C-alpha cells in the first residue's frame, strides 16, 4: 500500500488530508469504531479551535518546545486553520478572551464535513483496527491483518482520556525500538485539595475576579471549586508550574492595594465580627468568603494583617489529578528522536504527530492548533518519500 496513518484524531486526519492532496492513496486505521472521539468531546464545551492572538505571542505558550514548533506553526498555524475551517463551511467567531470557536459551538458539523472531504479524496478509514506493534500488524473486526505501507504517520495521541482512544499503549512498542521517550505527565488538569465539610455547599461554584499565582507565573482567570479540589481555566493555565511543585496563592482583590483593603476593614464598627467586616467592607460572599474561612483561619484581627492574607491566600494542593483525567499530557517522543520533518530517526519513513510528541500548551486554542499543525507538517514530509 502507499500511505498509512494510524490514529484518526485531528493530527492524523490532517496528515491524511495532506498526503491525499499530494496524490497519495491513503488508509487511516483507528482502534475505535468512530473517529476523533476526543475532538468531539472537546467540542461539547464549544470547540476552542484556535486563538486570535498574533502568532508571535502564541508561540511562547509552548514553553521548551517553542523553538522547534515555530516553523511548524508558521507553516500551518492559526490563520491557515481558520481558512481550512471556513473552507469546510465552519463559520467562526472570536470570543472576548480571544478564543475562536465555530458559531454552532459544536465539533460534529466540522468533523462530518472533514470526513466527507477526505472520503471524496479517496482516503479510506478503517474503524476498529488496533495497532498491535510489530511492523504494521493490526487486530481488526475480521481478525489479524498486516499492512506494508511505503510511508506512515503515527498520530496515536497522548495518555489521557483513554476511553476515547488516547491510552498511550504505543509507548511500549516505540520504547522497544529504542525511540527516546519522555515519560507522560498530566497537563491542563485539576489539583487535589482536601476540603473540610464547610466547603461542601460550594462544590461546583466558580470563583471569579481573582488573580492566581504559582512561583513567577500569574493569571487573572476564574476557577472552580470541586469535591476533589480545584480545576478550570485559571488552574489549567498554571498547571505546569503547579505540577512542578510551585505553591498556589490567590489574590482575592487584584485591583485593590493592601492599604485600601485595610482601610476599608478598619472603618467598620469594632463590634462587628470579622466575617461581617469582610462582608460589609469588601462585599465578600459565597465561594470567595468560604475560601477565606477555609484557608485563612485563624483570621487576623489586625486589619493590615488580614488585608495581606486576602491578597496572598495559600491553597494547600495535594498534587495533580490522575493522568487519565487530564485534558492533555506532557511528554512523549523526544524532539531528539525526530528529524526536522518529524520522521522517527531509527524508523525510516515513519513520522509522528500530535500529542505523541513531547510538547505541552495551555488551553485556549493552543492544543488543537499544534495537533493540526504537526499533523500537517508530518503529512507534508511523509508525502515527499517516493
Report on this structure:
This protein is of the alpha+beta class and 386 residues long. The chain folds into two domains: 3-186 and 323-383, FAD/NAD(P)-binding domain (3-Layer(bba) Sandwich); 191-315, no CATH class. Helix content is 33%, strand content 21%. It has 14 helices and 21 strands. The protein has helices at 10-21, 37-43, 55-59, 66-75, 78-87, 108-120, 170-176, 233-237, 239-243, 258-266, 274-282, 286-295, 303-311, 366-383; strands spanning 3-6, 26-30, 50-51, 92-94, 99-102, 124-127, 130-133, 137-140, 143-146, 151-154, 181-187, 191-192, 206-207, 211-214, 217-220, 223-226, 229-231, 248-251, 313-315, 328-333, 350-352. Strands 6-2-1-10-21 form a five-stranded parallel beta sheet, covered by helices on one side. It has a four-stranded antiparallel beta sheet with strand order 12-17-16-13. A hairpin with a 2-residue loop joins β8 and β9 (143-146). The chain starts with a strand and ends with a helix. The model has no long low-confidence stretch (mean pLDDT 95).
In percent, how much strand structure appears in the residues? Answer: 15-25%
Shape label: elongated
Largest sheet: 5 strands, parallel
- Supply the CATH class of the largest domain: Alpha Beta
Ends: how far apart? 12 Å
Low-confidence residue ranges: none
As for the CATH topology of the largest domain, it is FAD/NAD(P)-binding domain
CATH superfamily of the largest domain: FAD/NAD(P)-binding domain
What's the helical proportion of residues? 25-40%
Instruction: Provide a count of the helices.
Output: 14
Question: Looking across the biggest beta sheet, what order are the strands in?
Answer: 6-2-1-10-21
* Average pLDDT reading: 95
Instruction: Tell me the number of strands.
Output: 21
What CATH architecture of the largest domain do you see? Answer: 3-Layer(bba) Sandwich
- The number of distinct structural domains comes to 2
**Which class best fits the helix and strand makeup?**
alpha+beta
| Integer-rounded radius of gyration | 24 Å
Amino acid at each position: 500500500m502507499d500511505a498509512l496513518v494510524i490514529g484518526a484524531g485531528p493530527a492524523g486526519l490532517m496528515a491524511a488530508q495532506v498526503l491525499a492532496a499530494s496524490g497519495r492513496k491513503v488508509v487511516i486505521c483507528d482502534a475505535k469504531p468512530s473517529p476523533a472521539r476526543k475532538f468531539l468531546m472537546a467540542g461539547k464545551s464549544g470547540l476552542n479551535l484556535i486563538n486570535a492572538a498574533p502568532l508571535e505571542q502564541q508561540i511562547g505558550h509552548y514553553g521548551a518546545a517553542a523553538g522547534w514548533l515555530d516553523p511548524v506553526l508558521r507553516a500551518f498555524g492559526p490563520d491557515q486553520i481558520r481558512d481550512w475551517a471556513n473552507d469546510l463551511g465552519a463559520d467562526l467567531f472570536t470570543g472576548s478572551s480571544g478564543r475562536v470557536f465555530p458559531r454552532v459551538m459544536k465539533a460534529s458539523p466540522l468533523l462530518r464535513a472533514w470526513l466527507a472531504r477526505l472520503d471524496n479524496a479517496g482516503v479510506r478509514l478503517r474503524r476498529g483496527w488496533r495497532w498491535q506493534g510489530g511492523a504494521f500488524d493490526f487486530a481488526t473486526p475480521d481478525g489479524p491483518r498486516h499492512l506494508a505501507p511505503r510511508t506512515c504517520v503515527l498520530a496515536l495521541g497522548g495518555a489521557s482520556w483513554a476511553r476515547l482512544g488516547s491510552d498511550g499503549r504505543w509507548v511500549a512498542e516505540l520504547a522497544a525500538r529504542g525511540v527516546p521517550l519522555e515519560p507522560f505527565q498530566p497537563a491542563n488538569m485539576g489539583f487535589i485539595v482536601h476540603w473540610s465539610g464547610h466547603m461542601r455547599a460550594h462544590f461546583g461554584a466558580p470563583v471569579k475576579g481573582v488573580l492566581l499565582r504559582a512561583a513567577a507565573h500569574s493569571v487573572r482567570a476564574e476557577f472552580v471549586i470541586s469535591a476533589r479540589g480545584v480545576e478550570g481555566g485559571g488552574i489549567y493555565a498554571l498547571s505546569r508550574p503547579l505540577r512542578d511543585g510551585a505553591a498556589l496563592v490567590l489574590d482575592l482583590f487584584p485591583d485593590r492595594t493592601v492599604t485600601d483593603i485595610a482601610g476599608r476593614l478598619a472603618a467598620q464598627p469594632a463590634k462587628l465580627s470579622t466575617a461581617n467586616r469582610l462582608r460589609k467592607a469588601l462585599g465578600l460572599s459565597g465561594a470567595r468568603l468560604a475560601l477565606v474561612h477555609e484557608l485563612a483561619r485563624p483570621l487576623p484581627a489586625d486589619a493590615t494583617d488580614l488585608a495581606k492574607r486576602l491578597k496572598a491566600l495559600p491553597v494547600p494542593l495535594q498534587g495533580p489529578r490522575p493522568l487519565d483525567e487530564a485534558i492533555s499530557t506532557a511528554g512523549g517522543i523526544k524532539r531528539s528522536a525526530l528529524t526536522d520533518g518529524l520522521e522517527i530517526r531509527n524508523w525510516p519513513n515513519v513520522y509522528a504527530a500530535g500529542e505523541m510528541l513531547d510538547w505541552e500548551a495551555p488551553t485556549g486554542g493552543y492544543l488543537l492548533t499544534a495537533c493540526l499543525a504537526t499533523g500537517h507538517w508530518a503529512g507534508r514530509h511523509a508525502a515527499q518519500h517516493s
